[in-house]
């Protein structure tokens, strides 16, 4: 799959075109990057990133939770937002912070000829995304630096519960592309926050999203996705273990707190799915 996505990528060191020779990605100036046996390639270059990607345990927990279908209404809403552009030819869909590639795979399936590109700083995530779908490629890259992605090459970009770099997303999107963003509301997983000591949604999240998009994108669609889930102990452990709370609580602390909850526990999922279009004449934010 990596070969089919090479037309989206550029060398992170010099910005030139890339080719694939056996298990090596290389550019005409001699920079080379080995393809991991799991199928992804790391295109990190320059100074070491300060970002810490999700651990292998977090990615495993996310895969278990998403594969069980608990967030299927969110994945369906994301794919529907991507599918609004059904008249676009040659769809090229990039996801920032792709994690397991779950949402990207669902979006790629909206088009017979779409190619997906998952970007994540975590090698564990890149390994999982590389096998998420036959038409999805996976790279390791830092979303807060210059992405090794060709300017104007993507028709869609996704940011699902992930930090975003609006300047870079604006650069890599084509003029009529779309940026689909999913953000949690304060009700999201609300029944678990107090008893488990989970990280809360920032009160200013919506305002900060609007500010970050100002001058770069115009919002063209926004709708809420709210539903309840009946979660058993294993599902609760997975949803806690796949998010930022996993960095703050030990497995023992999580297990002790989860044991105090009823089985099953009714839990609310509440997010906003918003679609943005690039401003043709960008102004300073």
From TrEMBL:
> A Pfam family name for this chain?
Zn_ribbon_RlmA
The keyword Methyltransferase belongs to this UniProt entry's keyword annotation: yes
Query: Which terms are listed as keywords in the entry?
Result: Methyltransferase, Transferase
Question: What InterPro entries would the database entry show?
Answer: Methyltransf_25 (IPR041698), RlmA_N (IPR048647), rRNA_m1G-MeTrfase_A_prd (IPR016718), SAM-dependent_MTases_sf (IPR029063)
Q: Name one GO biological process term.
A: methylation
Q: Which residues form the 23S rRNA (guanine(745)-N(1))-methyltransferase N-terminal domain?
A: 10-44
Annotated signal sequence range: none
Q: Where is the Methyltransferase domain?
A: 93-167
Q: Name one GO molecular function term.
A: methyltransferase activity
Q: What is this protein called?
A: RNA methyltransferase
């Amino acid at each position: 799959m990596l070969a089919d996505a090479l037309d989206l990528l550029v060398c992170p060191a010099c910005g030139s075109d890339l080719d694939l020779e056996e298990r090596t990605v290389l550019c005409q100036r001699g920079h080379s990057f080995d393809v991991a046996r799991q199928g992804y390639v790391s295109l990190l270059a320059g100074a070491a990133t300060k970002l810490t990607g999700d651990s292998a345990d977090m990615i495993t927990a996310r895969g278990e939770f998403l594969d069980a279908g608990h967030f299927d209404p969110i994945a369906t809403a994301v794919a529907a937002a991507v599918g609004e552009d059904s008249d676009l030819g040659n769809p090229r869909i990039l996801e920032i912070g792709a994690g397991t590639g779950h949402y990207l795979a669902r979006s790629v399936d909206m088009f017979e000829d779409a190619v997906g590109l998952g970007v994540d700083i975590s090698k564990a995530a890149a390994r999982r995304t590389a096998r998420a779908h036959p038409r999805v490629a996976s790279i390791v890259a830092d979303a807060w630096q210059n992405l090794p992605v060709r300017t104007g090459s993507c028709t869609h970009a996704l940011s699902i519960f992930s930090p975003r770099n609006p300047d870079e997303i604006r650069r890599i999107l084509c003029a009529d592309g779309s940026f689909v963003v999913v953000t949690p509301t304060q009700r999201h997983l609300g029944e678990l926050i107090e008893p488990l000591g989970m990280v809360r949604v920032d009160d200013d999240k919506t305002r900060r999203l609007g500010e970050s998009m100002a001058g770069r994108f115009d919002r063209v669609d926004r709708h809420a996705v709210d539903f309840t889930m009946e979660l058993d102990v294993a599902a609760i452990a997975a949803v806690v273990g796949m998010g930022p709370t996993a960095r703050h609580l030990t497995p023992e602390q999580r297990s002790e707190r989860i044991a105090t909850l009823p089985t099953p526990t009714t839990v609310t999922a509440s997010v906003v799915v918003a679609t943005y279009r690039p401003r043709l004449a960008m102004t300073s934010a």
